[in-house]
């Protein structure tokens, strides 16, 4: 994909997977940026995905902690409902959500309208709950004896011990909204508010033929869209590795 985005003329042969200095150019990135403004799309994608990740982590931690550690009536029923939500495809909810958010709440053509349906993720709730269940209850009891409230127990005791769950939730949550194009496209038709995935979809369907090398420009946009996800994975990979190494050390 990277090599194809740098080719002056598309090379679909086997040799095209190797860079050819005589067929390399950066014009494909310039051509697609002139038509969809890559920086604006990246900023909108960052706002959308970043807000979703933040909401998912905060609400997922609070709910997962309540389901795993606190004792209250109906806890099992709430957890069963969280599991049930995961078997309902988001596509089935899209039309009623659109009516509620765009028409009833008047949040069409806003970032909040895009973010709201993704703000709470039942998968994150289940992941945090399962990790919190693995922490010895004696740690929580000792903190409470010392006078710590539940939020302090969560912040200082529980969260540092569930770093793998935190990393997993961030990665899984980020990839979804970052690549999402259908829901943002329904909420807004304003190019200045659309995430990069939506802008690329519009480019493919409408203005791809207006460039000298539509194939290369399309791949250039895909590279820009994929790069943040790859960078995020590389950054968090060391946390996975350190967790695996630490789990094999005694004492």
UniProtKB/TrEMBL annotation:
UniProt keywords (A-Z) are: Cell membrane, Membrane, Transmembrane, Transmembrane helix, Transport
| Protein name as annotated | Carbohydrate ABC transporter permease
Q: What is its main location?
A: membrane
Organism superkingdom = Bacteria
Tell me how this protein sits in the membrane: Multi-pass membrane protein
Record family assignment: Belongs to the binding-protein-dependent transport system permease family.
Q: Which InterPro entries match?
A: MetI-like (IPR000515), MetI-like_sf (IPR035906)
Q: From its record, what is one biological process in GO terms?
A: transmembrane transport
> What lineage is this protein's organism placed in?
Bacteria, Bacillati, Actinomycetota, Actinomycetes, Micrococcales
């Amino acid at each position: 994909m990277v090599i194809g985005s740098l080719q002056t003329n598309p090379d679909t042969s086997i040799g095209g997977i190797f860079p050819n200095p005589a067929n390399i150019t950066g014009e494909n990135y310039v051509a697609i940026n002139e038509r969809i403004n890559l920086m604006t799309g990246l900023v909108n994608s960052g706002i959308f995905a970043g807000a979703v990740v933040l909401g998912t982590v905060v609400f997922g931690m609070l709910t997962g902690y309540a389901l795993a550690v606190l004792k209250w009536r109906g806890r099992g029923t709430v957890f069963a409902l969280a599991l049930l939500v995961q078997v309902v495809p988001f596509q089935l909810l899209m039309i009623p959500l659109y009516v509620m958010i765009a028409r009833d709440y008047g949040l069409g053509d806003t970032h909040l309208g895009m973010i709201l349906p993704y703000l709470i993720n039942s998968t994150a709730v289940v992941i945090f709950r399962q990790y919190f269940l693995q922490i010895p209850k004696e740690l929580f009891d000792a903190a409470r004896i010392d006078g710590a409230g539940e939020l302090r127990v969560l912040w200082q005791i529980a969260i540092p011990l569930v770093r793998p769950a935190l990393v997993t939730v961030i990665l899984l949550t980020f990839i979804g909204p970052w690549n999402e194009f259908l829901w943002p496209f329904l909420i807004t038709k304003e190019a200045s508010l659309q995430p990069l995935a939506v802008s690329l979809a519009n480019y493919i369907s409408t203005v791809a033929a207006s460039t000298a090398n539509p194939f290369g420009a399309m791949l250039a946009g895909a590279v820009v869209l994929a790069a943040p996800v790859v960078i995020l994975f590389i950054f968090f990979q060391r946390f996975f590795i350190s967790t695996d190494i630490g789990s094999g050390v005694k004492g």
